[in-house]
Specification:
Helices cover 29% and strands 27% of the residues. By secondary structure, it is α+β, with helices and mostly antiparallel strands. α17 runs parallel beside α18. The protein binds guanosine-5'-diphosphate and magnesium ion.
Length: 793
């Protein structure tokens, strides 16, 4: 206990920061954990402090036990006295009332705690498909992740989605097979599932002492076998039901479980040997001489770490976090196997390859704002990860993404869920919260005011009035990919006094959530809110009405369509205007054409070499500027089609015959405006069509109800069934096996599906839905939608 405190203080001193002070003041008597700390103690003086930092996330299918596991981690780290349970609605991580009510985690919260002399920044990620942007923004700043799999249901649909997302970001992962206490829990089957469905190479590090794969009734849950150390691990629930007491006993030949552990160790060594040469050398060396049992634990750990960091394999741990079993070994594995910021490729190398400033060597501050939460008292809280330099309190920051606006940090915080602690600086590699920034959005890059990349890219004064002043300057870290919105609804203040609070609340929510969009319907003057799904907008509505107490009415939830040219069409456009006493002029020809096979738009801008005489040494930069301005003009026009103002998709835009009327007149702004208007003309001439979102829906349903679900899907919902299989989650009740139905359905017919499905199946079915694309509508349907939206057609 004392030892833990002292180690933590040493770590804090080494990083020059307060480390989890609050946690350690509240520490509960965790004797066994202290022992743990001693066992794995890493000398603090010799090591780079950054190597003792872990930025990690927990990713899983909803209900796999993410929140429950996190709560246990915080408890064992000495942070909370009592263990909160999701079912009681009192957990620390799910702190928004909307989340507590739903029992799911919606907003990522970054939380800091200590374990074994390391500092962990844990980013909670939501499991619901409507919140993929939340997952995405978290991935962007993670160095490693824990994936939780339910031991009964195995690898579920959403786990596959987030696993693929993590692969895209090359994030090393550990797998925790949870709910090992449940009837039907089967760890061998879970491991096979991991291999088959995630195409991962599992390295099983701990197995239950009861042997076999399936947990049979009455099998002891407290006794486990550590394959790496060949020890028995006992979670002494009888001594302390929070599971804080963990005992380790060396396994002796002849002990029950010795043979099982030895077999598992052999498998582990073999799996490692396939991908890691150093472990082969150890294995064949004189000391080990081909005996799996004699491979030293430290060598195994090192090999597991190498395999994990290179994403060639994932360690698998087992437990039941709800029963307080298995969480400390998971925490140990996070330290032992997940990367420190120093183990990861530099994010600075990940800037846009087109960005010439990427190579600038400057170790001053570069930070990435990965999340904004607008707190009622504190104002916007900007969660950042520092990639270079140090962020000090009261520092002026340049927001490179938003044209170089300057904002001053007033305070820095470290978050313990919703409880902050003020800190003096956020060091490189760390995550923290900046207060005082009013305009910073999720995905922005923040720079030191003297950062070298700013000097070379500062727009000159002359250009400044003409270029879009939100254009990015300086070094840019990759932003966050935000998928286009598919649902929208109108929102209206209840009375004139309510307009301002509503407008402010909406502005704050868009700062927080880049997947939430607010637009004004030009014809009706209505404010429209659009987002990723019905649940997404419901959560926004609940937050506005219940948490923020805004008096407003929300209209019917509707799907968001796309617009596409019906056929090729061309327009020629001359843009000529007086702006601030100066005349500006540009002209070009724009052709639009439908693309059948890809939803993405393509924009080609063709500017002949001879168009403009470059000023001496211009090096083509003026042509580049025109090219960029035209492409920007077209791209922003693509956001609003000409039928109902929905975004344009499946469209190829070609710009040609660009004309130049001299430096002073043909400014980038003129080209930008001209491109937009020429595009609108061409689109109008192309008999544009509406496209509707198509959702891929996966329904898990007991066989007894599948008939009514199918007839509803095929009937009123106009769905197309793609497959109908038995679930591989082996149902215990063989008379009523679970079926998995996958169908493609127009999203418009799926509004309110969760309650419909509940009544069709007496609450026994679950479903998930993901918009996979946009499909054509019949002329009749299109007329119907136009009529509903415009009141005429
Ligand atoms: P999340 O959606 O991934 O955050 O999952 P939660 O932590 O909210 O857990 C979902 C449900 O599973 C809750 O009812 C938990 O009590 C339950 N649960 C979590 N872990 C376990 C476990 O180890 N065993 C059992 N039997 N239930 C668990
Ligand atoms: Mg949760």
């Amino acid at each position: 206990m004392l030892l833990r405190g002292r180690l933590a203080a040493a770590a804090a001193a080494a990083t020059g920061r307060h480390l989890c002070i609050r946690g350690f003041l509240r520490i509960s008597p965790l004797g066994a954990v202290a022992l743990h700390t001693q066992r794995h103690h890493i000398a603090t003086d010799a090591v780079d402090p950054l190597s003792r930092v872990r930025n990690l996330g927990i990713i899983a299918h909803i209900d796999a036990g993410k929140t429950t596991t996190t709560e246990r981690m915080l408890h064992y780290a000495g942070f909370t006295r009592t263990i909160g349970d999701v079912d009681d609605g009192d957990t620390i991580m799910d702190y928004l009332p909307a989340e507590r009510e739903r029992g799911i985690t919606i907003q990522s919260a970054a939380i800091t705690f200590g374990w074994r002399d390391h500092q962990l920044h844990l980013i909670d990620t939501p499991g619901h498909v409507d919140f993929t942007v939340e997952v995405e923004r978290a991935m962007r700043v993670l160095d490693g992740a824990v994936t939780i799999v339910d031991a009964v249901s195995g690898v579920q649909a959403q786990t596959k989605t987030v696993w693929a997302q993590a692969s895209r970001y090359q994030i090393p992962r550990i797998i925790f097979v949870n709910k090992m206490d449940r009837d039907g829990a089967h760890w061998r089957r879970s491991v096979r599932d991991i291999e088959a469905k995630l195409s991962a190479r599992p390295l099983v590090l701990m197995i239950p002492e009861y042997g076999g794969g399936e947990r049979l009734e009455g099998a002891a849950l407290e006794r486990w076998l550590d394959v790496v150390t060949m020890e028995r691990v006992v979670f002494d629930i009888a001594a302390d039901k929070t599971g804080a007491t963990v005992r380790r006993e060396e396994l002796e030949l002849g002990d029950a479980g010795f043979a099982a552990a030895a077999a598992a160790r052999e498998q582990l060594v073999e799996a490692l040997a396939e991908i890691d040469q150093p472990i082969v050398d150890v294995f064949l060396g004189d000391d080990v001489d081909g005996d799996h049992l004699r491979v030293p634990a430290a060598e195994l750990r090192a090999a597991i770490r190498r395999a994990t960091l290179s994403s060639q394999a994932s360690p698998v741990l087992l437990g039941a976090s709800f029963r307080n079993i298995g969480v400390q070994p998971l925490l140990d594995a996070i330290i032992d196997y997940l990367p420190a910021p120093t183990d990861r490729p530099s994010a600075l190398a990940k800037v846009d390859p087109k960005d010439k400033h990427a190579v600038i060597a400057d170790d001053r501050l570069v930070a990435f704002a990965f999340k904004v939460i607008v707190d009622q008292q504190r104002g916007p809280m900007v969660f950042v990860r520092v990639y270079s330099g140090t962020l000090d309190a009261r520092m002026t920051l340049v927001n490179g993404t938003q044209g170089g606006i300057k904002e001053r940090a007033t305070k820095l915080l470290q978050m313990y869920a919703d409880t902050p602690e003020e800190i003096g600086s956020i060091a490189c590699g760390h995550i923290g919260v900046v207060l005082g920034l009013k305009q910073t959005k999720t995905g922005d890059t923040l720079l030191h005011p003297q950062h070298a990349s700013l000097k070379s890219s500062k727009p000159s004064n002359k250009k400044k009035t003409l270029v879009d002043d939100t254009a990015a300057v300086g070094l840019q870290l990759h932003g966050i990919d935000v998928p286009p919105p598919v649902f929208f609804c109108a929102v209206e203040a209840d009375s004139p006094q309510d307009v301002r609070p509503l407008t402010e609340a909406l502005a704050n929510m868009t700062l927080e959530d880049p997947s939430l969009h607010i637009t004004q319907d030009e014809e009706t003057g209505q404010t429209l809110l659009s987002g990723m799904g019905e649940l997404h907008l419901e959560v926004v509505r609940d937050r506005m009405l219940k948490d923020l107490k805004i008096n407003a009415s929300f209209g019917q939830m509707r799907v968001s369509y796309r617009e596409m040219p019906g056929h090729d069409a061309t327009a020629e456009f001359v843009y000529a205007k007086e702006i601030a006493g100066k005349s500006v002029k540009a002209a070009m020809r724009v052709t639009v054409a439908p693309i059948a096979d890809s939803a993405a738009n393509a924009v080609d801008v063709d500017i002949p070499e001879s168009l403009m005489d470059e000023p001496s040494g211009g090096g083509g930069s003026q042509r580049d500027a025109v090219q960029t301005a035209i492409a920007e003009g077209v791209r922003s026009a693509l956001y609003r089609g000409t039928l109902l103002g929905f975004p344009v998709a499946h469209t190829r835009v070609r710009v040609s015959d660009v004309q130049f009327f001299g430096d002073e007149v043909s400014t980038p702004a003129a080209y930008r405006a001209c491109a937009g208007q020429a595009f609108f003309q061409a689109l109008k001439l192309s008999s544009p069509q509406l496209l509707e979102p198509i959702a891929r829906t996966t329904i898990l349903c007991p066989e007894s109800h599948i008939g009514s679900v199918l007839s509803d899907l095929n009937g009123v919902r106009k769905g197309r069934v793609l497959s109908l299989d038995d679930s591989d989650a082996e149902s215990l009740d063989s008379t009523n096996a679970t079926k998995v139905l996958v169908a493609e359905v127009p999203l418009s017919t799926m509004v309110g599906y969760s309650s419909a499905l509940r009544s069709l199946t007496a609450g026994s079915a679950t479903f998930s839905m993901e918009v996979t694309g946009f499909g054509p509508m019949t002329a009749q349907q299109q007329q119907q939608v136009l009529k509903e939206s415009l009141g005429y057609c």
